[in-house]
């Protein structure tokens, strides 16, 4: 069922003004149409321009013929509907192609989200299975001694990184001096103390660096995918939370 609109006096920003009764049957709502022959090419209400149709009180009004509009329930609109992104063409609501600016904005936002996720992921720490390094014991803060097993090394910030670099350097010096069997202690995120040889500790640090490099490489892979996406939908389809190295 169409909604009949009638002319009002005067001309508006885009063309002749029209009005219609609101859905509750009370009062009049005015809006302005831009006409190109019989074709309605734009409409405004509350100073918002909507190509070939307009959204009023959550309801899309689309042109059918003359000055009659076909009312479309807002609940049937596409999930990503916005007045600037859709046009009424050929008797149907059609999504307009993304502009270069829209794609670029989506890419910037997604790339920033990757950066934020990267830092948050790194800050969770680096897991280490000490059973692969001589299966040492761990001394807990309570003084209890247990198998070290799975532990996590803190990688919260640059201070943590500097500490691990210093440990690796010290171990390298011991190994160069033919003292690779020298006991070295590692403090984990749970405040457990694990003692391994300098050779084993250097191997732990090497594995941690390899993991860190893999995480950074994956972040760049995601950013490259985002930069290659041609539409906003393609950018949003990239899952930036999955696939990170364990």
Tell me about this structure.
The chain is 32% helix and 33% strand. The protein is of the alpha+beta class and 246 residues long. It has two domains: 2-96, no CATH class; 101-236, no CATH class. It has a five-stranded antiparallel sheet, with no helix packed on it. A hairpin with a 5-residue loop joins β16 (183-187) and β17 (193-197). The two termini are 58 Å apart. Mean pLDDT is 77; it is low at 1-52, 54-60 and 63-71.
Short descriptors:
single chain; 246 residues; alpha+beta; five-stranded antiparallel beta sheet; 4 helices; 17 strands; disordered N terminus
3D shape? elongated
Please estimate the helix content. 25-40%
Rg of Cα set? 32 Å
* Tally of strands: 17
Reported for the largest beta sheet, the result is: 5 strands, antiparallel
* Structure class: alpha+beta
Mean pLDDT: 77
Q: How are the strands of the biggest sheet laid out side by side?
A: 2-3-4-5-6
Number of domains: 2
Spans of at least 5 consecutive residues whose pLDDT stays below 50 are 1-52, 54-60, 63-71
């Amino acid at each position: 069922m169409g909604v009949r609109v009638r002319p009002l006096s005067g001309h508006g920003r885009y063309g002749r003004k029209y009005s219609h009764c609101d859905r509750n049957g009370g009062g009049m709502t005015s809006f302005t149409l831009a006409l190109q022959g019989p074709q309605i090419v734009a409409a405004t209400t509350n100073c918002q321009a909507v190509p070939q149709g307009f959204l009023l009180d959550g309801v899309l009004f689309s042109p059918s013929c003359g000055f009659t509009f076909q009312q479309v329930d807002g609940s049937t609109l596409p999930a990503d509907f916005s007045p600037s992104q859709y046009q009424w063409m050929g008797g149907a609501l059609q999504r307009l192609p993304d502009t270069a600016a829209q794609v670029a904005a989506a890419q910037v936002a997604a790339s920033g989200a990757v950066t934020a996720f990267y830092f948050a992921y790194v800050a969770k720490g680096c897991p280490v299975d000490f059973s692969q390094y001589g299966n040492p014991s761990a001394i807990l803060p309570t003084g209890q001694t247990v198998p070290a097993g799975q532990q996590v090394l803190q990688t919260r910030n640059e201070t943590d990184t500097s500490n691990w670099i210093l440990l690796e350097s010290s171990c390298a010096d011991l190994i160069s001096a033919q003292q690779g069997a020298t006991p070295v202690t590692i403090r984990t995120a749970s405040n457990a103390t694990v003692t391994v040889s300098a050779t084993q500790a250097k191997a732990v640090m090497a594995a941690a660096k390899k993991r860190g490099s893999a995480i950074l490489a994956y972040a760049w892979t995601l950013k490259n995918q985002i930069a290659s996406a041609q539409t906003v939908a393609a950018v949003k389809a990239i899952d930036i939370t999955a696939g990170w190295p364990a």
